[in-house]
Amino acid sequence: MKVIQSTAIAFLYCFSNIQADRNTLRCVDPDTVDNEKDYFPDKVQPEYSEHWDISYHNTYKILSNKLAGTSYALYQCGTELPTSVVDQVTDSWSVPLQDGIAVTATTQIPQLEQLGLRRQVKGFLGDPQYISSPCMKTLLEENMLVAINDEMLPSYAQTPNGIPKLQFLEENPQVAILRSTGVGNKTLNWSAFAEKGNRATYEWHKVMGALFNLEYLANQQFEESSSRYDCVSDNADWLLSESGESSSKPTVLWAYKTWDGVWDVARCDDEYHYYCEYAKACSSILLHSNNGSVPVGTWEPDGFHMTLEEFVEYGKDADYWIIPDYINNLEEDYADEWEQLSQFKSIQNGQVYDVQKSGGGTWFEQRLAEYDVVQQDFCEIVGLYDDQSIGRHERMYFRKVYPQADVEPIGSLGSCEASFVDLPWESRASTCEVLRPSTSSGCSVSATYLAYGVVTFTAAFFGFVM
What we know:
The chain is α/β, with parallel strands linked by helices. Helices cover 30% and strands 17% of the residues.
């Protein structure tokens, strides 16, 4: 740990020499403001996302949520927002955000951690027992992060040990509260959940960076994850072609038993797409179907689940089975159906996985911000991740649950001492090296982890995470 701190300090010294070319990470002196100066030389733009856009105007930027129909002025702290702009936007904040941020979904937490902004998360509208991040749990214990009750939202009205939302706003008047709907009371609409595609969803990471003038770091982290994704996908395609079995792609069953005893399977339409995208990126075939004889319910009028008989016929020949659920003991959990399920090719070959390799809650909280890691897990499972020249990828999400002798333990994200909260985030993705021979010079895609530490500690230096 001392090595990391010393390295960060050394890079901080070097980084300070070029900080003038980056977005400022603190307020500027009002007496020195130049309205003709571009205070945001680092900018973000959506490449994959459909629901947000942003424009830059020297001293302020306009963030638009195209799905919600709202817009927000983010003006450099120390400058004044033109009154003509105030009348045209839904709300406004000075940036970097001066009172931090409040989140309403655990999926919003990892991106803030990646940007080195754990201490900028001031509140959580929800039950904090569902937070998986060890460092955010530590901040909860130290009362640096508070649970919030929102009497206007029934699901958030009885948060254990929560404080009233109005009290929270009085104590943090310039906080930004990320919510999918609603306006007023410092609400900023967050619509990452509605994007189509893993990269489009994660690209809201750039929006998070813009709230703290960290466009440079957000762009860097997005591009590195995107490059890894492309590298792993191309490797899978090349490995399949080299195997001589390109016409016989591995087949994957993605399904689980619901609480009422029927079977929910993958559907590759616009709404249920992320797992289908992983299969395509790993040169695999994901079984998917919108058929079944059991109606899902009023919340999904066009959806159907399968009976056991339908499910057996549908999934019995798949090479691999990924269960997006928590498995304790496969034979015991599916005891009533085991006679039929035990004939599945995936079970007979011991290729069955759940999503608890890093703990149950981690799958729901972290995977959207680690979509590249999930892809590496998927490709590793189907045998199209690497060859003899590259070290094996250690899976972080998918856990083997059968046969019993090979069951992997339920994992966790570990613990986080208070002294570790401000240490820089490091990706859990494996380095990807391009396998496909090229006539041009070879390339290697690997994350520049020290660069993350530089900016994270720079943020601390300027008061973001102190």
